[in-house]
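Protein Entry — a single chain follows
Fields — amino acid sequence, structure tokens
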Amino acid sequence: MRIIDNLDEMTETARGWLSGGSVGFVPTRGRLHAGHLALIEAAQQECEISVVSIFLDTATLGPGEDLAAYPHHLVQDLQLLTNANVDVAFLPDVGDMYPPDFSTNLTLTGPLLQRLEGASRPDYLRLVAMGIIKLFQLVRPDIAYFGQKDAQQVAIIHRLVRDLNIDVSLRVLPTVRENDGLAMGSGNAALSPEERQAATVIHRALLAGKELVEKGGRSPASIEKDMADLVTSEAAIKLDYAALCRADTFAEVDTVTPGVLLVIAAYAGKTRLVDNILWASDGRWLL
């Protein structure tokens, strides 16, 4: 596995992709888990070259995230990538990505940035989107791989790729879950045993919403209330929102029809947990 931490070296390497085959790219913030490995496996199956970035913009750290723990995780992450036979690990430094005179900003408008995660963490979404766009420019992938768990981030990236005519295809894979349904995420390791057990209520609440839909429920407000009531029944979990929205725009819905996303965000201690399930336009449930 080749390790690149210099932006110019990554740019020069990417210029050579044209003769080397298709490039599959998995952007991460580190602390890799089985969900990331599933994305990497898909990239390797569908492309000739696999690239994984580990880039942590310190401005996106939440109150429950410990920056000091990341160097330790980097050693583990690189070993995982080596074991997975990744071709290139790209480790850009935040100071190189955003030098002191960096003066470009993204302006994102509409429900995608104004609702749900956008209302709770607008700067986080904007910074993540900026980082992904810069990574696309540096790596020049043919296909970039994301997980369904981060649905709003993925919807924003879809919009940016379309609006800015970026030559990359996006592949969104199903959420990888623990045996008890908890969506795998880098923050899960910070949960105490009690918080970890209580956090399973998020997936149970989403499944309860799904069951209401399958029984004919079409009122978003009623389904949102039932999901919220179930989450708040766990004393260790603090609900941020339980919502139904359009999967592509995150706009509110008047009635529940295929193409709707059921999404919940909550805190277990200081750890923010976001999860969703999708009633796809073809009638399938993506869990």
